[in-house]
Amino acid sequence: MSMAPEPIPLPVTAVTCQEDRAHVERTTVLDLEAGVHRLRLGPVSALAVDRTLHAELTAEHPATVLDVRIVREWTPRGPRPADGDSALRHRVHTLEEELLALGRRRDRLHARVDALGRLAADLQREIGEGAGTGESEALRWTRELDRVDEERDSYGERLRTVEARLAGLGAELAEARRVMDLSEEQPAELVGHIELTLEATAAGPADLRVSHLTPCALWRPAYRAVLDGESLTLETDAMVWQRTGEDWSDVRLTLSTARSAQSTEPPRLDEDRLTLQDRTSAERRTVDVELREEEIADLGPVPVLGLPGVDDGDEVRVLNSPAPVSVPADGRAHRVPLSSFATTASIEYACTPELSPLVTQVARFDNRSGHALLAGPVDLIRGSGFTGRGTLDFTAPHAPVELAYGSRDDHRVVRHTEETRDTATLTQRTVVTRTVTLHVSRFSSPGEHGERVIVLRERIPVSEVSAVEVRLRKEACSPAPDTVDADGIACWSLALPPGGRRTVTLVYELSASAKVAGL
């Protein structure tokens, strides 16, 4: 059995990225001789999952894979950069060595200056003692003092030069380290290789494909919606993060919402017992009701708290990158284009005064991307540029999409409500009358022409019990709503000229019998 002396490169050629991991495929061409071979392939990421490792050869070549495994080696980094390191890393090492040498020189200069200071103090003490005993050596004392002062000035200047150089080197080294942290990663000390044992019955080239799972990789959908008049362009992208320890260069990228780590099992069947109980006399005489808020929503997955995953409508979705992509292993977000389409959108200026007094520009269009739009953030862009960021819900192909492009500063809506309560003497029936008044204003700049249609929506309570009735008083409304749907949403379409104002009045009654309590 032969063993290759050098590792055979095994580059990443295809990646299937999931919510929290990636399925990596590697391919290479082996030139085999007849016999049993033990090959060393790689290097590969040390994070590869061993139990998911799979290797196969092309069916055309008469060879069989006998064994495949991942072997990891730990090589600690030395104090000096290796020959294959970048020039920036060598530059940082040179600056560190120069900084260390200058620090030692500064310490020696400090010691020399301190020694000269003590020498000058001893000399001055000797001069004082000699002058006190009557000695007179003025020439020698002057010569010695001049020599000491000259050396102190010389070494002091050297010390200041070294300290200035140290400060400059410190700033340069800090900048070099910051740039290196932003542009480079520390070389991995733990490196993996794949050891492959195979048997070939004939000589010739063979295509090898190795696949495995790798953690520390994920993706999320992102969108960019550009609105130009009534033309809207929606770009679908994927934000990909990976820190697997090796770069993905020119790989075929597939994005999947499959959750391979989640085990599924059928729900347990428990007994659901129903019992009948006679109502008391008090319960027969009264009907307890309450007002509650219900959110109107379509059928779809229930949102969950915590880290948001990929909302795929409870069905595995697969998206493919149209071109090979490169994703470095730096842990940062990289945007990968997936698809784009242009369509005509219907523009609506909508307002719900009960929730907000602002008028919002809403664009509605159909999903013509050819695939489902997964839930994710969308960058909103119109004629003036970037206007904000919204959220796009899960949308099936050819289903309607609704995007809000922010509020209009030239519109205001003021809402007032009044409520009256009356009880009939004979029937003891309680009638609650509510009046909602909406004042809509449009503040236009000089020279602006043309009407703008504002869509107002106001809700009316919907009763679920026959003891409580809700009636819209159309004769008292001014004007009457254009439509009222089954959820009690009343809608008006108001055409406002520049500088125009309109007032909308909505009146409805809640009528309850005498046995109703809680209204």
Q: Which secondary structure elements does this structure contain, and how are they paired or packed?
A:
Blueprint (H helix, E strand, L loop, with lengths): L1 E2 L8 E6 L3 E12 L2 E10 L9 E4 L5 E12 L12 H47 L4 H46 L6 E11 L3 E12 L1 E12 L2 E12 L5 E9 L24 H5 L1 E2 L29 E3 L4 E3 L6 E11 L1 E6 L7 E8 L9 E7 L2 E8 L7 E9 L2 E13 L6 E13 L9 E8 L8 E5 L10 E2 L4 E8 L4 E12 L3 E2 L2
Q: Helical element count?
A: 3
In percent terms, what proportion of residues is strand? 35-45%
N-end to C-end Cα span: 89 Å
Q: Care to count the β-strands? A: 28
Uncertain segments: 299-307
What structural category do the secondary elements indicate?
A: alpha+beta
Shape category:
extended
* Average pLDDT for all residues: 86
- Note the main sheet: 7 strands, mixed
Q: Helical residue percent?
A: 10-25%
Radius of gyration: 40 Å
Overall structural domain count: 4
Can you characterise this structure?
The protein has 519 residues and is of the alpha+beta class. It folds into four domains: 105 residues; 97 residues, Helix Hairpins, CATH 1.10.287; 139 residues, no CATH class; 107 residues, no CATH class. It is 19% helix and 43% strand. The strands form six sheets. Strands 2, 3, 5, 8, 11, 13 and 14 form a seven-stranded mixed sheet that branches. A six-stranded mixed sheet has the order 20-17-16-23-26-25, with no helix packed on it. The chain has a five-stranded mixed sheet with strand order 15-10-9-18-19, with no helix packed on it. Strand 16 and strand 17 form a beta hairpin. The longest helix has 47 residues. The chain is extended.
